Fold this sequence. Notes:
By secondary structure, this protein is of the alpha+beta class. The protein has one domain. Helices cover 24% and strands 31% of the residues. It contains two helices and six strands. The strands form two sheets. Strands 4-5-3-6 form a four-stranded antiparallel sheet, with helices on one face. A two-stranded antiparallel ribbon has the order 1-2. The longest helix has 11 residues. It is globular and about 40 Å long. The termini are far apart.
Amino acid sequence: MCRNQRGVLCSTERLYRVKRREIAFVKFIFEAYEGIGTLSTIQPADGLIRIQIPPGCESVVAAVVEDLRKHIRIRSVQAPEGEQILPS
């Protein structure tokens, strides 16, 4: 969990890469688990997605991602240091 300058808990951001055709499937899974994370497609052609995770939901998201790995290829990726990846 992170805290902003005022000490308020803030969301965590994780980047993943999936096959392009799997983006909708992953999005539907996260929508079914209401409130554990918001999925955004960053680079659709490359299958790059971002999941914004509210405070306290990190372990649930990690468990969902681990379960997804049994069914699809999903890889954690990191943005280059100091660089923020914006949707295209």
